[in-house]
Write a structure and sequence with these properties.
The chain is mainly α. It is built from ten helices and no strands. It has one domain: MetI-like fold (Orthogonal Bundle). Helix 1 (about 1-20) packs parallel to helix 4. The radius of gyration is 19 Å and the shape is globular. The relative contact order is 0.13.
């Protein structure tokens, strides 16, 4: 889901930050609408669509609903990152013959790492908090971490609740550490 957020969020944020086109503000509002509309209303409408498409009660439906609910955060954070960097660096790279992917990978990607790190945390935390949406779209058949932990949070034993709360809090940190390792491998080397 994090990968989907980045694959869809980077081009959307880039276009919203650097280009002027017809209906730009309407598209911006549409992309951010899951933040303004109550989650229950979004989930109920999308559930009807997913039932028709045959992806309700399936892991694909759960991944898509979590992506829909977290994509606005990704776009907003990346757009701010792109606007902070400006379009000039990409134009200079293009004038020197760099293709758009190469310019992004060597110029923008390393500078967008603080934004990407923020996205990792917020997408993970928002996704982990979507118990109801996961239950609705997954139909109770798609097993996720909140589904595993929820019965233990109803326990009268405070030590069990504390243990699972600590474990639940460590998940974003573990995901962050994994992504940091991947970024170190994928980052362009200095002096290339």
């Amino acid at each position: 889901m994090l990968f989907l957020n980045l694959v869809m969020g980077i081009p959307a944020a880039n276009a919203l930050a650097f280009y002027e086109f017809k209906w730009k503000s309407a598209i911006d509002i549409l992309l951010l609408s899951p933040l303004f509309i109550p989650v229950l209303a979004v989930a109920m409408g999308i559930n009807m669509t997913f039932i028709r498409l045959g992806i309700a009660n399936h892991w694909l439906g759960v991944v898509l609903i979590h992506t829909i609910l977290t994509l606005p955060y990704t776009i907003r954070i990346l757009r701010a990152g792109f606007e902070r960097l400006g379009k000039r660096q990409g134009e200079l790279a293009a004038s020197l013959g760099a293709k758009s992917f190469r310019a992004f990978y060597f110029i923008y990607f390393p500078q967008l790492l603080p934004s990407i790190r923020s996205i990792i945390f917020i997408v993970t935390v928002v996704s982990l908090s979507q118990y109801f949406v996961t239950a609705l779209i997954g139909g109770g058949t798609v097993l996720t971490l909140p589904f595993l932990y929820f019965p233990f949070f109803q326990s009268p034993d405070q030590s069990i609740i504390a243990s699972f709360s600590l474990l639940f809090a460590m998940i974003p940190i573990g995901i962050w550490a994994t992504i940091e390792l991947l970024l170190r491998i994928l980052l362009p080397k200095k002096g290339r």
